[in-house]
């Protein structure tokens, strides 16, 4: 099987924390330009899988290729790690902005320190991406002056400033008030339309249905089902997925009702 054109390839990867086995031999791939939604109950291994993709977590066994680089090798150097992080952007649930830096400073820090860009180049880049996420007027603001939705859009712009080839999103809307979710998903939808390779851990089934090319359902550290959003979300084959979706629907009805 030729995997050279794939953005991420993972073969039989396993990850444990002490005696707790979180990933149990997962195999799959993410194609370039593909948007993949990873769904499943809390604790099923979704976030751990995502964190392995940019080596925030090292896998215990198996093989993991990101942009044709084997990131599972035990002697993976700090130089290789920095290179990987420039290619693979990550947006976290809790934004992870530096509170003591302005929005502009948050965006220009990595391009200057990691990519070696000048202050002027970095500021131009930051302006470009702040405009893209609709926050050009907030460049001099500090994180505490922003809403949750604005913080997350700044976090997305910060990742884009590194010109990544892949974007990872770990529950990017779960810390937001419901009325702010839409503004973040809109930015993500725009990135998807522009061909960005994206892996999104999410509970937003509407986003998965409308934007993802493929949905992967994880349960207890294994891939139970995967396929098109229509196939996985509208025609689940396993009892585990049917149960997960019905619980999710019940929770949504509870909130809206």
TrEMBL record:
Keywords: ATP-binding, Nucleotide-binding, Phosphonate transport, Transport. SUPFAM superfamilies: P-loop containing nucleoside triphosphate hydrolases (SSF52540). The keyword Magnesium does not apply. Residues 8-245 form the ABC transporter domain. Pfam families: ABC_tran (PF00005). One of its GO terms (biological process) is organic phosphonate transport. The keyword Transport applies. GO terms for molecular function: ABC-type amino acid transporter activity; ATP binding; ATP hydrolysis activity. Belongs to the ABC transporter superfamily. PANTHER family: AMINO ACID IMPORT ATP-BINDING PROTEIN, PHOSPHONATES IMPORT ATP-BINDING PROTEIN PHNC. This is Polar amino acid ABC transporter ATP-binding protein. It comes from Brasilonema sennae CENA114.
